[in-house]
Amino acid sequence: EAQVTQNPRYLITVTGKKLTVTCSQNMNHEYMSWYRQDPGLGLRQIYYSMNVEVTDKGDVPEGYKVSRKEKRNFPLILESPSPNQTSLYFCASSHQLTSIGTGELFFGEGSRLTVL
Amino acid sequence: AQSVTQLDSHVSVSEGTPVLLRCNYSSSYSPSLFWYVQHPNKGLQLLLKYTSAATLVKGINGFEAEFKKSETSFHLTKPSAHMSDAAEYFCVVSYTGGFKTIFGAGTRLFVKA
Question: Cα separation of B113 and B109, whole Å?
Answer without folding.
Answer: 13
